Amino acid sequence: MNDKAPQATNIKDAQTLINQLWEITRVQVKTIDVLTQQVNSLTQQVDVLTLEVNTLKEKLSKNSNNSSKPPSSDGYSKPAPKSLRKKSGKPSGGQRGHKGQTLKMIAMPNIVEKYDITSCTHCCADLSHAPVIDVERRQVFDLPPVELEVTEHQAQIKQCTTCGKSNKAKFPVAIGKGAQYGTNIQAILTYFNQYQL
Questions:
Q1: Which of 29, 71, 155, 161 could form a disulfide with 64 if both were Cys (CB 3.0 to 4.6 A apart)?
Q2: Could you tell me if residue 182 is inside a domain?
Q3: What sign does the CA torsion over 50, 53, 59, 60 have?
């Protein structure tokens, strides 16, 4: 492109220059319109992304100390727990002179499991007929297995001898239709669900 403006020497040349400038201007106006639309679109995208970034930053900065989020949502960035107890200066664990308590064996267990030894662990001799000279005892304390107790409720149905209509006894209000869990197991399940698990 020439740095100097073109000079028209007559009207025909001037008209040609005007037409060329008009075409250049028309193309540039279209280009400016397209670029303006792109800038507006990109500006909207930047605004949306800025809002998302700010929202994510705000979420990341919240924890159970500065919001209503539960402590379990803090993840690995949990602050170290601070105990409100003051140090006593004593070593941890049982203190000197403290009488310890441990689980003790009982004389009459409910079940006795016996384990026979049938051969010598040193020379492999048969011990199946040898007398027992002593036993080593160990006891395991545990809860017995819990089994459901099923109670069937039956409402009698009788036919009236006078009018011939069928009549059925009423079930108690707590007994629903078909099979259901009783109030005791419902209470235990609620307890485990709400307080223990």
A1: 71
A2: no
A3: negative
User: Are the CB atoms for 21 and 10 separated by under 8 Å?
Assistant: no
Count of the separate structural domains present in the chain:
1
- 51 located within any domain: yes
The pLDDT value recorded for residue 69 is 78
In the block, residue with structure tokens 């209509």: 165
Alpha-carbon dihedral 187, 191, 193, 197, rounded to 10 degrees: -150
CB atoms within 10 A of CB 78: 13
Question: What does 49-73 look like in DSSP terms, one character per residue?
Answer: HHHHHHHHHHHHH--TTTSS--GGG
- Return the amino acid letter for 117: I
Asked whether residue 170 is domain-assigned, the answer is no
The beta-carbon contacts of 158-162 under 8 Å, at least 24 apart in sequence, are none
Q: How high is the pLDDT of residue 2?
A: 61
Q: Is residue 32 one of the residues assigned to a domain?
A: yes
The most distant pair of C-alpha atoms in the chain lies apart, rounded to whole Å, by 140
Q: What range defines the domain where residue 62 resides? A: 11-66
Q: What's the pTM value of the predicted model, to 2 decimals?
A: 0.37
Q: What is the C-alpha separation between 187 and 162, in angstroms, rounded?
A: 46
Tell how far CA 48 is from the center of its chain.
Answer: 31
Residue-level pLDDT at 180: 83
Mean pLDDT by runs of 10 across the 197 residues of the chain is: 70 86 92 94 95 89 78 72 79 79 89 91 91 92 84 91 92 85 83 70
